Amino acid sequence: MTYENLLLEKENKIATLYINRPQALNALNRETLLELTDAISGIAQDDDIDLLIITGAGDKAFVAGADIAYMQNLSAMEARSFAALGQQVFMMIETMEKPVIAAVNGFALGGGCELAMCCDFRIASSKAKFGQPEVGLGIIPGFGGTQRLTRLIGAGMAKQLLYTADVIGADEALRIGLVNSVQTPEELMNVVKAIAGRILAKGQAAIRLCKAAANEGLQTDINRGMTIEVDAFGLCFATADQREGMTAFIEKRKAGFIGK
Ligand code: CAA
């Protein structure tokens, strides 16, 4: 599939996916979501890729939301299926085995904030702005915002943002735990790639089991979560990476992981 609304770069085991609709501040319309679905399933299956970075093309927006012009005249059933499509692809991102980092380079509003939230974690440019402005349009978030924001930053702060439609800056997003750090616009991608490099230097089988255990544990009670963890811990001992990681430690050398 050729992409009209995405750019995809692959280098050193890292895929960088740019949402690329500069004329609409990278807003997500149906075509973009369909392209995203194709790109994510390709990256998930690509043996040359171990980590995904999602960002916005240009210097103004990560993603300024779902496309309002596209949504304006939708029927209730069309709107429902648009939200279901967005939720489906964001769930693919959240549950993909490989780690996914959002490099939030500008506006991350509505569907843009929701896209950032389905990634494993978010690093923001000082120019980034976050919010769920949907109630100002007479709608509610449809790509997971009411569910992920409450889980990520707590119900009270999430409800304040959801009800007021306030747009907050990167420093406030850092304070409330929506992003992990704030970088200058010039440094954002370097910092994200440096974090990616530190992740890629570790055992990828273990990273994937960590992600699965953390994600599945968040959906269940602590006792079930602990069982998920012991099973995943046990599974590590069926990997070459566990043997190499522990042997390298004992032999006082750097481990050479193969991700299996
Ligand atoms: N959908 C469609 N087009 C959008 C858009 C969006 N979400 N956001 C921006 N654009 C378009 C603008 O219409 C404008 O197009 P034209 O040049 O053709 O007029 C272009 O992008 C540039 O935008 P602005 O001129 O508005 O730029 P600005 O710097 O003055 O303002 C902004 C930037 C504050 C981000 C403003 O564009 C804005 O408020 N955008 C909408 C944000 C929003 O409400 N997002 C939530 C959408 S609903 C949603 O996401 C639902 C869901 O969960 C599924």
Number of strands: 10
CATH architecture term of the largest domain: Alpha-Beta Complex
Q: Average pLDDT across residues?
A: 98
End-to-end C-alpha gap: 30 Å
User: Which spans have pLDDT < 50 for at least 5 consecutive residues?
Assistant: none
Q: What do we call the CATH topology of the largest domain?
A: 2-enoyl-CoA Hydratase, Chain A, domain 1
Question: How would you describe this structure to a colleague?
Answer:
With 260 residues, the protein is of the alpha/beta class. It has 2 domains: 6-200, 2-enoyl-CoA Hydratase, Chain A, domain 1 (Alpha-Beta Complex); 204-250, Lyase 2-enoyl-coa Hydratase, Chain  A, domain 2 (Orthogonal Bundle). Helices cover 49% and strands 16% of the residues. It has a 6-stranded mixed sheet with strand order 1-2-3-5-7-10, with helices on both faces. A 4-stranded mixed sheet has the order 4-6-8-9. A hairpin with a 2-residue loop joins strand 1 and strand 2. The two termini are 30 Å apart. The mean pLDDT is 98.
Q: Helix and strand layout, with pairings?
A:
Layout: E1 6-11, E2 14-19, H1 30-45, E3 51-56, E4 61-63, H2 68-71, H3 76-95, E5 100-104, E6 107-109, H4 111-118, E7 121-125, E8 129-131, H5 145-153, H6 155-164, E9 168-169, H7 170-175, E10 181-183, H8 188-200, H9 204-218, H10 222-236, H11 240-250
Parallel strand pairs: 2-3, 3-5, 4-6, 5-7, 6-8, 7-10
Antiparallel strand pairs: 1-2, 8-9
Helix pairs in contact: 1-3, 3-4, 4-5, 5-6, 9-10
Bound molecules: acetoacetyl-coenzyme A.
